[in-house]
Amino acid sequence: MEKDQVEFRWVDSKLVGSNTVVFRLEDGAMVKIKVDIRRAGVAINFKNPDGTPHYAIDTNLGIEVVPKSKKFYIPKSQLRVPAPPKESKMKPI
Prior knowledge:
Layout: E1 8-11, E2 20-24, E3 30-47, E4 53-66
Antiparallel strand pairs: 1-3, 2-3, 3-4
């Protein structure tokens, strides 16, 4: 380990409350922001200038915009359409 490196101990995180924040825009659209912690660590060989622990946190942000109309489009080529039923060879009575 190099002299100028800070060593961290991996710490687990537990969600308290909701990890999604929702904003409503002026035009009626909603913006949903989901936050997750990918990795959290506390420094073993380093403290902040005020003596408190120093943390390294990696986050993931997911952003979803839902338009006011709540409509979306998918090309027909991407739709899964079931095959039509096969015709029966039985004759009606």
